[in-house]
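User: Sequence recovery, please. Input:
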């Protein structure tokens, strides 16, 4: 019996491989993956005019209403396919391309889609818009014409023969072929009951995933339906809406004498943390189709409880009232006044603590280095008089005199005392992502604590004025700024204890934290003001702050800081930082620490380099 079952499974697997191979229309040996080309395609997209805040992601599969042949129906293939699309937030390209029989053509197709998306706008008519964008792209860059023609001819050779189709489908197929070869020549597509074979050279309308927010015109802020950042790593899921009849069950008969008590009022207290289902993200990742439902309950009839925050007796201590701050909405291109509530807090149970013994040797070395900066003497070039000759100035003078244009300049070097007239504020990201392990002994938050301690020891040795803050957030109403050391406080055991009491939690609403730090740093009288941001990831939160919205708001906050004369600089350990930090902080406004364990030693040295070159 067991042998028979194994034989049946073997025959079934052989048949499945055979029929699937015969029915497939792609070329697996020439497959190109998006993950291998994602950074270069994103660079090409932005270099040719695409918006910098648009993310490049994998496209989800769509249902295809094609006329399939017998082999396709038996094998169950060609029912779905990922198609390229672009909206105001994301450019979605197929996760892999095996459309053509050669790798070179599939790579060309990826590049063509990135270029086309860079010149695309809002889509109103699929065929006319794609023809117009293609025509404009070829007119602006005529050198792309040979590549485009190669793609078109190679694709048309793989499309269904119009002679094998019925009259309506053949007319549609011929119209699409003409639109590909002569962009702009087809104004209206013929009608057909069956859809045409997909056009991989064109962009498709964004796939509306039956968003649960859009229901009967109800107004929601989206907080209840947001997906926590990082839980969905792949392409978006297809969804359909189903009616929930759970409230329409039968009559429940219960004996009242079985009820032990009855109360009209229940005191609800929070003594334990709520947690997400650990298997929910894994199960959702395995599903191809999600069914969404909602009970039809009036807003006034429901009780909405936010149990995301810890109870008051274990939460950090608030300092004063909350601060209302603006936030940038890139969709409206305006600041929303008072949109965010920021609460300054102090870590609970922060008792004065000495420096941990493991950091004594490194702290002593850094203090000695930075104490020399108090009496630092620097060479001033091109002086009228001095103790040594400025060889570079003399060489410039000699070359200019040989060419007949000689400007007056000093030819000496003079050594002078350097006065460090600067203030620095360090913002440290303490979101829940910093609770991740770097190795068997350290987490990210451990490295951040050590970095803050050594940074404080170094700047205290240099005598520079500085402040230390941590930040996290839980939607726009709960942006939390942990005060570790203000500008008015000395760096002592109280500050060391506050740093060691830091605990990770929540999310990363960078814009509000940067704006508040800008106000604090802007009030300093020092001439140079450095704003350092230490983080392990990109901006995110439970609401719409995830994605382009958060990136655009952070970029706007950085621009506001620069307009006030501050020098914002980001230090990150996120290996994907090159995808978004150049847009937010500029090409020279950030640095990546590839080995996070070296952050405590690198942070003071980076500060010294930044202040010396200013």
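Assistant: Recovered sequence (614 residues):
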């Amino acid at each position: 019996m067991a042998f028979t079952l194994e034989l049946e499974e073997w025959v079934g697997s052989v048949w499945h491989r055979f029929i699937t191979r015969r029915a497939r229309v792609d070329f697996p040996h020439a497959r190109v993956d998006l993950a291998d080309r994602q950074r270069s395609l994103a660079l090409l997209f932005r270099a040719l005019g695409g918006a910098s805040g648009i993310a490049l992601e994998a496209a989800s599969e769509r249902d295809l209403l094609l006329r399939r042949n017998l082999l396709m129906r038996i094998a169950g293939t060609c029912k779905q396919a990922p198609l390229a699309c672009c909206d105001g937030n994301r450019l979605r390209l197929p996760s892999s391309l095996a459309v053509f029989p050669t790798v070179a053509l599939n790579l060309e197709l990826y590049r063509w889609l990135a270029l086309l998306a860079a010149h695309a706008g809002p889509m109103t008519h699929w065929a006319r818009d794609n023809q117009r964008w293609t025509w404009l792209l070829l007119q602006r860059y005529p050198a792309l014409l040979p590549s485009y023609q190669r793609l078109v001819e190679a694709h048309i050779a793989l499309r269904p023969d119009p002679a094998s189709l019925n009259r309506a489908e053949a007319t549609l197929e011929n119209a699409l072929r003409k639109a590909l070869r002569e962009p702009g020549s087809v104004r209206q597509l013929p009608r057909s009951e069956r859809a045409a074979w997909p056009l991989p050279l064109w962009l498709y309308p964004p796939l509306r995933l039956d968003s649960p927010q859009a229901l009967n015109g109800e107004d929601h802020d989206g907080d209840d339906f947001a997906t926590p950042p990082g839980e969905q790593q792949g392409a978006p899921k297809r969804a359909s809406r189903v009616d929930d009849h759970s409230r329409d069950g039968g009559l429940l008969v219960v004996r009242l004498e079985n009820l032990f008590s009855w109360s009209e009022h229940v005191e609800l207290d929070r003594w334990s943390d709520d947690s997400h289902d650990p298997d929910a993200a894994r199960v959702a990742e395995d599903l191809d189709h999600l069914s969404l439902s909602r009970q039809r309950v009036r807003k006034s009839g429901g009780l909405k409880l936010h149990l995301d925050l810890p109870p008051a007796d274990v939460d950090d201590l608030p300092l004063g009232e909350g601060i209302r701050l603006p936030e940038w909405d890139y969709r409206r291109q305006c600041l929303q006044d008072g949109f965010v509530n920021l609460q300054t807090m102090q870590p609970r149970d922060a008792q004065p603590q000495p420096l941990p013994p493991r950091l004594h040797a490194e702290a002593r070395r850094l203090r000695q280095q930075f104490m020399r900066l108090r009496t630092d003497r620097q060479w001033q070039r091109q002086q009228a008089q001095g103790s040594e000759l400025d060889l570079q100035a003399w060489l410039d003078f000699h070359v200019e005199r040989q060419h007949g244009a000689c400007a007056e300049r000093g030819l000496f070097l003079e050594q002078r005392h350097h006065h460090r007239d600067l203030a620095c504020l360090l913002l440290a990201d303490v979101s829940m992502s910093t609770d991740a392990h770097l190795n068997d002994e350290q987490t990210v938050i451990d490295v951040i604590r050590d970095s803050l301690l050594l940074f404080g020891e170094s700047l205290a040795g240099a005598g520079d004025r500085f402040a230390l803050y941590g930040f996290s957030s839980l939607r726009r109403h709960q942006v939390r700024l942990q005060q570790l050391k203000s500008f008015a406080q000395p760096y002592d055991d109280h500050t060391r204890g506050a740093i060691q009491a830091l605990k990770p939690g929540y999310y990363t609403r960078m814009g509000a934290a940067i704006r508040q730090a800008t106000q604090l740093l802007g009030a300093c009288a020092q001439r140079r003001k450095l704003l350092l941001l230490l983080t392990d990831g990109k901006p995110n939160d439970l609401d719409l702050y995830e994605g382009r919205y958060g990136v655009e708001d952070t970029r706007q906050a950085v621009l506001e800081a620069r307009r006030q004369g501050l020098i914002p600089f980001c230090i990150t350990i996120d290996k994907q930082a090159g995808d978004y930090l150049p847009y937010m902080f500029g090409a020279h406004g950030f640095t990546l620490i590839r080995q996070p364990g070296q952050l405590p030693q690198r942070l003071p040295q980076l500060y010294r380099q930044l202040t010396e070159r200013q």
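The chain has a mean pLDDT of 78.
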